[in-house]
Design brief:
By secondary structure, the protein is α/β, with parallel strands linked by helices. 36% of the residues lie in helices and 21% in strands. It has 2 domains: 176 residues, HAD superfamily/HAD-like (Rossmann fold, 3-Layer(aba) Sandwich); 77 residues, Alpha-Beta Complex (Hypothetical Protein Ta0175, Chain: A, domain 2).
Length: 263
Amino acid sequence: MLQPLANLDATVLRRVRGVIFDVDDTITRRGRVEAVAYEALWQLADAGLILIAVTGRPLGWTDVLAHLWPVQLAVGENGAGWTWLESGRVREGYFQNTEDQQSASEALARVRMRVEREMPHVEVSGDHRARRCDLAFDVAEHARLSADDVEALRRIITNEGLRCSISSVHAHAVPGEWNKAVGVVRAARSALSLDLESERDRWLFIGDSANDEPAFDFFPLNVGVANVRSQLARMASHPTWVTEADRGQGFAEMATRLLETRA
Ligand SMILES: [Mg+2]
C-alpha cells in the first residue's frame, strides 16, 4: 500500500542528510529535466543537503552530471561506477576490478550477439557508446517492445548468466553484483567517505521504476513519484510513500515537503 507523501513524519524528514535520486521519469519528462525539478535540486543543495544522482544511464553521462549539476556524486549504469569532483577535478570509481571488467565485457558481447541473431528487431540503447560496464536495450525510449519481447530479452540475458534490470526505458544486461542500492553505498563510501549503511534512515531515496527496487528496499525513507503506479505490476517491492504529482513535478513536491520541515 502506497502512503501519500504528506503522511511522512516531519521529525523524520528533519533528520535527513541527503537525497538520492533517480533521473529518468523521476526528474525528467519525455527525456528532459523539468524546470521545477532542476530548481528543486538547487533549493535542496542550497539548504545544505547532499545530493546523489543514481541512474541506469551511462558512466559517460555521469561525468557530465557530476560537472554540471549541484550533486556531490553521480552513480551510473545502475551502480556499476560513479563520478565525483575533487577540488574541481573529475574522479571515477568502479564496482568491479579490472579483471572482472574484462570477463564481463566478454559476457556482454555474447548477449549482444544472441539478441542480434534471435531478436533482430531489438536495438541497443541510443546512449550505448557512452557505456563502460553494462549493455542496455531500448524497450520504451524510442522503441515500443511488447511485454512478451521484454520477457524474451530478459530470458536471453539471464540464460547467459547475467542479471537483468529494467527501467522505464531500457532493459540492462548486468554482468556483476551491483544494483542501485549497493552501488550507491559503495560509491558514497569510496568517494565521499560517507557510511550510508549505518545511517540509512537519514537518506531519502526517490525513484519511479523497477531498477529502483533495490533502493526502495534498502532506504527506509523511500518515495516514488506518482508515475511509479504504472510500473508496480512489474515490481516485487514497492515504495512506501508516493507523491501526488508525477515525474519532475513529483520530485519538486518531495523537495518542498523536505524543505518545509527545516524552515
Ligand atoms: Mg527512472
